[in-house]
Amino acid sequence: MSSNSVYMIGDVDIHDLEEYKKYMEKVKPMIESYGGDYLIRGGEIEALETKLWTPTRIVLVKFPNKKAAMDWYNSEEYKPYKKIRFNTSTSNILMVEGIK
Q: What is the pLDDT of residues 64-89, one digit of tens each?
């Protein structure tokens, strides 16, 4: 298994901000407990080329490796919060291997 860092790239269109805030409050420390480091969390977007998709709200998290990223994503601890995200937003989530 590769030990390269893995980046979670999320594009999230929030439909119910008040409910989604519960997700953000609980998931940030959870991700950090799996070694995740937030690099981008909803900053301003300057969309220069958008032929494949137009981004809404970008989140970028660096994990130490794929195992840590997938352990978090598939954890029992995250399941109820993933459900909140599904119910309050529309999203694309990608796990992308970085380079050494």
A: 999 999 999 999 999 999 999 999 99
Q: Compute how many other C-beta atoms are within 10 angstroms of the C-beta atom of residue 15.
A: 11
Inter-helix orientation angle 17-33/79-88, to 10° = 150
Q: For residues 76 and 73, give the distance between their C-alpha atoms in angstroms, rounded to a whole number.
A: 9
User: 48 vs 51, 91, 92, CA distance in Å?
Assistant: 10, 20, 19
| Segment 24-47, tens digit of pLDDT | 999 999 999 999 999 999 899 999
pTM of the full structure: 0.91
Pick the CATH number of 6-45+52-97 from 3.30.70.100, 3.40.190.10, 3.40.50.720, 3.40.1280.10: 3.30.70.100
